[in-house]
């Protein structure tokens, strides 16, 4: 199968691609008006997009990347950091070895990571000063994600924080939330009662 037969889709503003197999790696396509891209790759083994994959999609504001059975289409193509209009990034069913490059997407307002294996939320995520929603939801992986110290306290515009599948929250983790004056929704699945009450 061929990823996309044409190299230019100038008239498209939204695109959804679902594929089980490609005979060759997807090449970059020219979509200068594209606002939303949904890409679901159902492979039984790891997969990586070319580094320049997003170079022809400069207007992208929403990306949803989905894998199959937590196999990887990552590391992220380096071109993702050049998407200066990106406001929403949804990631699901991926093996995420390193997401530090996401910290360069300073226009992001929504970051959702679901059903994906991630060992640590890196310090670079703290650079996302415009983030209003941060979600990590992973209940099927035996090793829980660690939140790097100092990340949450820097997300001063955060309104929603959902952390399911992370290490047991500590006193220091909850203390970081004190600087989030706009926070209206909070969820931690592993947080002992004494830690919560001591921070009320």
Automatic annotation (TrEMBL):
<keyword id="KW-0677">Repeat</keyword>
<dbReference type="InterPro" id="IPR055414">
    <property type="entry name" value="LRR_R13L4/SHOC2-like"/>
</dbReference>
<dbReference type="Pfam" id="PF23598">
    <property type="entry name" value="LRR_14"/>
</dbReference>
<protein>
    <submittedName>
        <fullName>Tsw</fullName>
    </submittedName>
</protein>
<feature type="domain" description="Disease resistance R13L4/SHOC-2-like LRR">
    <location>
        <begin position="77"/>
        <end position="189"/>
    </location>
</feature>
<dbReference type="InterPro" id="IPR032675">
    <property type="entry name" value="LRR_dom_sf"/>
</dbReference>
